[in-house]
Fold each of these.
Amino acid sequence: MTATSAPTKQQILDGLAAISAPDGSPLPKTGTLSEIVVSDGKVFFSITVDAAAVKAWEPIRKKVEDAVRAMPGVTSVMVALTAERAGGGKPAAPAHAHNHGPGSTHAHGGGPAGVPGVKAIIAVASGKGGVGKSTTAINLALGLRDLGLKVGVLDADIYGPSLPKLLAIKERPQTLGGTRLKPISSYGLTVMSIGFLIEEETPMIWRGPMVMSAITQMLREVEWGTLDVMVVDMPPGTGDAQLTMAQQVPLAGSVIVSTPQDLALIDARRGIAMFNRVNVPVLGIVENMSFFLCPHCGERSDVFGHGGARKEAERLKVPFLGEVPLDMAIRETSDSGLPVVATQPDGPLAKIYREIAGKVRDQLQGGGAARAAPKIVIEA
Ligand SMILES: Nc1ncnc2c1ncn2[C@@H]1O[C@H](COP(=O)(O)OP(=O)(O)OP(=O)(O)O)[C@@H](O)[C@H]1O
Ligand SMILES: [Mg+2]
């Protein structure tokens, strides 16, 4: 035991009794607190509230964090505000609109501050779920790494974080000097996910303000260090998380992932429209699960009518970044924490992702992005 050993869970609960819920009752009596995790002076827990009451709870979350931080022996604290989800599955993207007209561009002076030390932040997004954003994000990040860039990955999918699984990460982030979190290193990438901080099984939904506070914390309270590129794995849809990203950081651009089907392409268009709305340039479209190469006979079949995304990119005048086949190796490696670019670097799939990464880098460097964007210079 050191002189300032961390408080026990009970001591934290006792300390929180002085803080009241919006209805006036002492916080520990409200049944809103999750399991309190105390590890090596670091304290993590969540407050689960009714989605409608989130606004009233945000200042309380802050108060709770401050109170716990002030306890002797506490080196850092992260308190997340979450709302209970009724059923399984993901919530629909929150519908409330932000007034975010074209006049509110943040790309130039007076916009949001960047993350210190991070040269370019790009979002990997799609209008629709399950099209392979996370898989693309991690392999694109590794492809950029292979080009000699220093790369970070931020998992902004707080509805269903993927990085713990994609990289088989079980450890919790360490803290640095009080309140800042040290990201995790994996395959030469600097990575952070809300999934490193909360239990995987916790059923929850994050709405407007909660999304913002979680993403803001992951951007601003994580010691990202010096990065050439931060790749952000976005949640599906065109809701608050995406708008928050655009509001919180100057995004250098977005990469839209789509499958070849028409339906997914409609969603991709929606994604592109959203980034246009917030003046974030679209760096290009990746067609994922584009075609199927039979592992036995080597014959290629266009399961979903391949080529749709390329045509769509032409029509929308955004760059086409490449086609990734539907391949069991991709599924198996990403689902077992061994991303294909890292584990099969000499294979054909790694080559495809590196080519996509090269185009993304060129887009960032050359300002070839379709819309007015801050020019980012990346020295490899
Ligand atoms: N090219 C591919 N070939 C085979 N399987 C793939 C490919 N791309 C992705 N997958 C698999 O498809 C599933 C969904 O992929 P992923 O999680 O990357 O999608 P997502 O768009 O991030 O989903 P979500 O919207 O839920 O965040 C995963 O099991 C993944 O391994
Ligand atoms: Mg995902």
Note: The chain has eleven helices and 14 strands.
Amino acid sequence: MSTVAEHYAKHLGPIYLWMAGGPEAALQAGGAEIAALNLPLAEGAAVFDLGAGFGMHSIPLARRGARVTAIDTSVELLHTLAELGGNLPITPVNDDLLAFQSYIMEAPSAILCMGDTITHLPEFGAVDSLIASAAAALLPGGLFITSFRDYSVPLVGDQRFIPVRSDDTRILTCFLEYEPKTVIVHDILHQRTSEGWQTLVSHYRKLRLSPEQLIASLKSNGFNVRREAGLRGMVRLVAQSV
Ligand SMILES: C[S@@+](CC[C@H](N)C(=O)[O-])C[C@H]1O[C@@H](n2cnc3c(N)ncnc32)[C@H](O)[C@@H]1O
């Protein structure tokens, strides 16, 4: 079993942008999600993007005038973010997102943890402590926004095989193996090489978070919470500190 960081370093990092549809489509989708959120951000507002990846949300946020701190454990994805982000006001940080408070220079107006990143945390206690830290860090009225897959109801039988993306050169399929509180995610990659097809397999663990569990944690930390439909079947929670 790989750790999350190992899984991204050796398996998903190199193909992540391809998996997301390529830079243009991915940034368009991220931009549309940021536009739909219609965040009330002042010019130059401080925003944190936790588990920022290649900048699917950091880049559109910075294009809208935010100063973004983009934290991720994948060096490769942060390099891609820096290339795609050009001169935009984004500070890439290679660290665990749970350490985000160490990088705060001024209270953020918003903290995002998007695209199923929150399920990568090692246990529910870490999710709870992230939410408590976000509540403590945000400006009054600030927003904590997260989107994630609801793995609380297990898929069964053939449903557990999920085609992620394929083209002439690659086929990525995900297989889900359920445990009581976690799900083991097997990413199976077939890649065309000059010697024929190569198969690469790696697996790691994610949390089976339910929206209700997260909403309860957010409310107990003083947030008002709105639940919405996120991208690609994810749940999106928009929580405002009071
Ligand atoms: C599913 S991707 C989502 C990326 C991005 N938020 C998006 O919506 O495209 C999860 C990202 O979180 C990062 N990640 C996972 N666990 C992390 C942690 N504990 N600290 C920092 N980054 C983490 C991974 O390296 C990866 O880039």
Note: The radius of gyration is 18 Å.
Amino acid sequence: MTGVATDCSVRSLLKQGIGQLREANVPSFTLAGELLLLHVAARDRTWLYAHPEEIFSAETTAQYFALVQRRANGEPTQHLTGKQEFWGLEFEVTPDVLIPRPETEHLIEVALDRLALRELRAGRSPRLTGNGITLVDVGTGSGCIAIALAKELPDATVYATDISLDALNVARRNASRLGISERIQCLESDLLEGFSPLATRHSPLSFDLIVCNPPYVGQRDAESLPREVREHEPEIALNGGEEGYEFYAELIAQSHEFLKPGGLLVLELGYNSLPAVQPLLDPSHWTDAGVTNDLAGIPRVLAAERFAPR
Ligand SMILES: C[S@@+](CC[C@H](N)C(=O)[O-])C[C@H]1O[C@@H](n2cnc3c(N)ncnc32)[C@H](O)[C@@H]1O
């Protein structure tokens, strides 16, 4: 019978919860069952397997099975626990932001590698502090990319933009709970347009690094998205237009305008975006284009440098 436990030990609740999630065909049902149990118990994973005999109160047991039921009905685990780990940091997530994905960590790696290479080429130490670097994360959502980069580059000046004010509020809260709100300036903006009024003729605002994980799901693919994504993640974070790559042309054009000569652009790609996006990097404007695959072998990150006449 759903949600009724006679034995309220951790071991038994976990077994029943996981069983219900498996029956509902929830992906990664064991992990989901564990995370929900840890959430209601307010404990960490080590505790879970060290205390299999601990007895939950009737109230905590009821809370656990209520969450299991909601997960079985399609709500993402992260919306139920309110958090997701990314780059070793814990981020608050709400239905207003995309849940940070592991493949986006490749974008951070590529950005840091490219910055280190730039230092080496300039005859400096590749050990990065971010000193003298100004960067922007376009479409920041939860703030995961901007915050991870700000943590890695403690001396960098970091901007984060989003067209969604609700998303920016989540990003601001994440920056605050991760102790770096002073270091990130969040700006409501359609791509990079919000920076135009900030730049003056005497003090143009230009970046050393622009990173972006844009919405890249096409109309056709939208219907085949898992229910968790289709019904619960924000349309504005997913919908990349008819084909899914409609953001890139404008983003690349604006990035060219806002990058310093030799500045870096690092973009996350949808699983089939590369053939449409790579040709947008006009060789008279961009150099050193490179593609990085994710762990599934999908071309996931496209990086290039704004052409700098030597
Ligand atoms: C795929 S999500 C990426 C979120 C986050 N950067 C990440 O990697 O998890 C795309 C983000 O772009 C934002 N967005 C959509 N259209 C935008 C636009 N025209 N200008 C700025 N941001 C936009 C969405 O609100 C969403 O937060």
Note: The longest strand covers residues 259-268.
